[in-house]
User: What shape does this take?
Amino acid sequence: MSKGRIAIIGIGEVPTANRPERTQWDIIYDTCMEAVRDSGLSKNDIEGVISVTPQAQPKIAAELSFGKLPEELGLKGCKDTVSVNAGGASTSNSLRLAEQWINSGVAKTVLVQHVTVHSTVPIPDLINFFAKAGVDLQWEYPYGTTYNIIMGLIANRYMYESGCTPEQMASVVTALRSWAAKDPNSFFYGKDVPSVEKVLASALLNTPLHKRESNVLGDGGCAMVVVSAEDAKKMKRPAAYKLGDSVRYFSGTCVMRDFKKVEEGFRITAKEAMSQAGITKNDISLWNCYLAYPLAHPVVAEWLEVAPPGQGGKYFLEGRMSFGGDIPWSTIGDAPGRGHTGSGVSAACYVETVRQLMGKAGERQVKNCKYVYQNAGGGSGFNNIATIWGKEI
Amino acid sequence: MDLEMGKPVPETQPWSEKFWAGTKQGKLLIQVCKDCKSKIFYPRRFCPECWSGNLDWIEASGKATVLTFSTAYDMVEPKFADELPYTIAYVALKEGIRMMTRIVECKPEDIKFDMEVEVVFHEREGFFLPYFRPVKR
Assistant: This one.
């Protein structure tokens, strides 16, 4: 967790889309080969493979957990492989494990990958899985709650306390989709950005959440090649250096989650991660927030002190976090913009962080991108992991 | 796998069975630690504050306030679709604990933040789920 111990030097990603003919192994081959080629290394340089565990896909999860990937891809130098599962926090933990392997000498070069194919999972299986994942089966599930409702509970209280309006909330979708429209790997690449009016005109699923404020499930995958910061520097290639990492646990059960504790957790993890990196919030070039739902973005903008108290929604409505705005924010549009790939949205966010720091983000490229705040959380929000990544050590 | 269509009942643990037995008698029970005096929800095998196994139960007043709520109109599991619209809430009990519940016996538009509510038990396959309704004045 100390400054500059690891760096990501190669990335690979496929577009998020529902294409059932594209198998999980198609995606694994494409993303891993692209990442290794992007790193300038060869396949046999990979000494460790860490997979983000795919959710609701037991067959591929078992294949990855039990060691098939290095064999399938012919990674002759691989010394070990493992899967990591902390829901949406899996990628952060995969990168931490890669850091441990590199620093302890288990592996010099680690491949971290994620794959999800929702489109071939039978709909009843998806419903049965996502209805119960992250929801307590004794104290919550019997009442008929859903992820959408859990988000509605948080958003309603925030709107009540802050005065945030439905229009301001809806404008978050407009902001996130404005980035997605410029992202070739997004579900919504090149598509019209919905206006605030259009978001609010969509069906009300549960107060205050409209259909266009929820997520579309999609297939996708990505991979990253991780080496020590020292090795990355020697290679003289574009890289993203990990500079800070801080985490707080909140609760496993939604109803036990104290709103104040979550707020404090977001605030302190950001401060601790930035302190490790030796920077302040004014140095951040991009706030690449992974929050899954648009309704969480205004309050987190306030907790991160990007927007003043009570003005998170106003900032979004003014277009400040949109493509072309003055505050670069979630430049793949988080899950609402990218399409929801289960535990893979955070993996996609990390790839975007690296892409921005490498200067490869195309139309979405943040000018002079030097430091990125990247967070992730697992389950229904059991924790928050804040990380800082930099262009240089 | 087929879609599970039966309405779920709580998946209990040995140390929560007394809670559910209480609901059958119209009582909302709260676990308490006899050593550190903590009120515990949800029920545990050992006190989460001091790890004492010296636990007991008290009957809650059943009075609470609405901390937050969300009314569902669509996109719930098919097994709950026949109950739409319904309102899920977090309520804060006077005894200082928080529960997820349903708000019933009032229109969704009449539910307010910090509104006073009281427990009312709804039966489902032998379990009596604690729902809450507005306090009548």
About this structure: Residues 121 and 130 of chain B are 5 Å apart (CA to CA). The beta strands of chain B are 29-33, 39-40, 55-59, 63-72, 86-93, 98-103, 116-124, 127-134. Chain B has a mean pLDDT of 96. The first strand of chain B starts at residue 29 and ends at 33.
